[in-house]
Amino acid sequence: MAHTNVRNTGVWVPKATGGIYRYPLGTILPTDPWTPRPVIPNWDPRLGGVSDEGVTSTTKRDTEKKKDWNGDKVRSVQTGKDDTLKLTFIEPKNPRVMEEYFGKANVTVTEATAQHGTLIAAVSNSDILPHFAYIIDTFDGADRKRRCLPDAQVSETGDEVWQSKDWTVHQLTYDLFPDLAGNTFYDYTERDDKLVESTYTVTLSGPPTNGTFDFKVADLAAEIAYNSTQTAFQSAVAALVNVKSATVTGTAGGPYTVKITTAGVAPVSVDGTDLVGGSVAVA
Length: 283
Prior knowledge:
Layout: E1 20-24, E2 50-67, E3 73-89, H1 95-102, E4 107-110, E5 119-122, E6 131-140, E7 143-157, E8 170-176, E9 186-190, E10 195-205, E11 210-217, E12 220-225, H2 230-238, E13 245-250, E14 256-263, E15 268-271, E16 275-276, E17 279-282
Antiparallel strand pairs: 1-6, 2-3, 3-8, 4-5, 6-7, 7-8, 7-9, 10-14, 10-17, 11-12, 11-15, 11-16, 13-14
């Protein structure tokens, strides 16, 4: 069975402030996951909380199967592609969520006064719901993912239920439309593997008279001769696939100063089991 790298798995969740943000159609959206979201005067992009079902993104490609004279399938022709997004907003008293459900022009907010609280008036009609741009920001630990939707429109609304046994939510399905470049959404994922430079000192005691030791970076090992030159030591460490660069200084037999660059902090250790008449340590 193939080994699964747990760092490549993903459990994407938003921060406490929510993960869905709405902007006017045509807003220039970020092209990476770390640039701050756009700030537009008198525009609050926050759409509030989403249910624990999260967000479901669906891509459907329509194809037509072509067959030869014998009835055997010989190729498929793509006839269309459709992207949708489905989620459930759990703040039905949020004016911006109501705008998603009824249409922005159909919701009016009157600020609270000394006599009355905030009034949110909504009307339901057959007006076409507007198009907006959206940003979805999520995190998996220190990894982060951002999805930008340049053009999306609510295409389907779920039932609005009022009852004592459950809360009221707004389940919405969005149709995604291509921008001028022909793309329906942009996905940006940043892994927590920034390059880190670390320096270690490797010392041989005894001294050993023969044999080799392992210089380990995470679970990968470079085999080093007991009397290795700094050049040979450096070449062996630099050959490890999880080492971006390596520099080794020192004389044959050590001590050696080892400087390595890795994606994130990688544990370093040594194993002198195969040394004859000596030992090795790293600090």
